[in-house]
Automatic annotation (TrEMBL):
Source organism: Succinivibrio dextrinosolvens DSM 3072
Protein name: Sulfonate transport system substrate-binding protein
Keywords: Signal
PANTHER family: ALIPHATIC SULFONATES-BINDING PROTEIN-RELATED (PTHR30024), TAURINE-BINDING PERIPLASMIC PROTEIN (PTHR30024:SF47)
Record flagged with keyword Signal: yes
Cited Pfam families: NMT1 (PF09084)
Length: 360
């Protein structure tokens, strides 16, 4: 084991020696596909600031108003659809069957910005803390039974709903679940359809403007929902430095958000206007930035650290795999956990740290 770690150290050290970034380097092309949400803004902001070129990258950024499972399906259909994607942990793990990917980093934590929302007159809001272990969660066995929930299946929404139902000793058999596109849910509800929907920002903002109320966040139902940066397997094998440079660029935006989130409000508004066509208030943008905890490279390395024990990322993967039956809404189906397991690698973060440290 010691020999393996020593050899691994030498391998990483040799890579770091080769991976300084300077202006004479030819730009490395990188196809990045992200969802219309917070982490995409930080990448977009970095490109707007010219940091991609600073780190020797030429990023082809695609921002889509879809769900993470849709990006996974893009790669399944076309192995060259993207080199890097940012998706929630559920589609990254549960939606990755038969797809060769590698986890390379963490975009943010969406546990407080993903919510179950209902109409203001919903009887679900009439009961709070029915389960004393969850005093902030609205609803009861009686008020939730037979309700119709709009969700995007095989995303964090499935995970959150399964946790929410379990709090009240309910299952999917006790409610009606309708799969659909996130951006359509508010319209469906406004038209009088359904009883509840699971949204993440910025869609939550649109729902709040129309009067919808939150009955629980992901965090309040013990759902861990970080956004993971993943790379297609073949690209990851052959482009260590390119991926590390992407993480180093992202780290620069992360540090600004941590130290001065107010400075990002105006560019965040611009980003949302460009990609959604909608106007968002200063208050929402500042709130949303603060509602998405982000992690520096050093903090991410701790999440990926498996030197002595299973890493936090590996534990999250194992936890989600153990809940495949509930998350996929097929409680009687049989699954082979090995088909969903991907070995998280801290290699890219370690190289990125070397790049960042060399620029200090």
């Amino acid at each position: 084991m010691r020999l393996f770690r020593f050899l691994r150290y030498l391998f990483i050290a040799s890579l770091l020696c080769c991976f300084s970034v300077n202006a004479s380097d030819s730009l490395r092309k990188l196809k990045v596909s992200l969802l219309l949400e917070h982490e995409a803004f930080l990448v977009w902001y970095g490109i707007e600031q010219g940091w991609d070129k600073e780190f020797g990258l030429e990023i082809d950024l695609s921002v889509k108003d879809v769900a993470g499972i849709d990006l996974m399906n893009d790669l399944k259909v076309n192995s060259g659809a993207w080199d890097v994607a940012g998706v929630g942990c559920v589609p990254a793990v549960i939606g990755s069957k038969d797809i060769d990917i590698t986890y390379i980093g963490v975009g943010n934590n969406e546990a407080t910005s993903t919510e179950i929302m209902v109409r203001p007159d919903s009887d679900i809001l009439k009961v709070k803390g029915a389960n004393p272990d969850y005093p902030e969660v609205y609803g009861s066995k009686e008020t939730i039974h037979n309700k119709t929930f709009f969700i995007r299946k095989l995303t964090s929404a499935s995970y959150i709903l399964s946790n929410y139902l379990e709090i009240f000793d309910l299952t999917y058999n006790d409610v009606k679940v309708v799969d659909g596109k996130l951006s359509d849910f508010v319209k469906y509800m406004n038209d009088g359809n359904g009883d509840a929907m699971i949204l993440w920002s910025p869609s939550t903002y649109e729902a709040q403007k129309d009067g919808y109320k939150s009955v629980a966040t992901a965090a309040q139902v013990d759902a861990i929902v970080p956004v993971l940066f993943i790379a297609s397997g073949e690209f990851a094998k052959n482009n260590h430095q390119t991926l590390a440079r992407f993480l180093a660029m992202y780290d620069k935006a992360v540090k600004i958000q941590k130290n001065d989130p107010k400075s990002l409000v105006e560019p965040y508004k611009n980003f949302l206007k460009i990609y959604s066509g909608k106007d968002f208030s200063d208050d929402f943008c500042l709130y949303d930035l603060k509602a998405h905890p982000v992690y520096t490279i050093d903090e991410q390395l701790k999440l990926f650290d498996s030197e002595s024990n299973m890493s936090a990322i590996e534990k999250l993967e194992r936890h989600l795999i153990s809940r495949i039956a509930m998350i996929s809404m097929q409680p009687d189906a049989e699954y082979d956990p090995k088909e969903y397991k991907h070995d998280p690698s801290d290699l890219f973060l370690k190289i990125a740290k070397g790049i960042v440290d060399s620029k200090k």
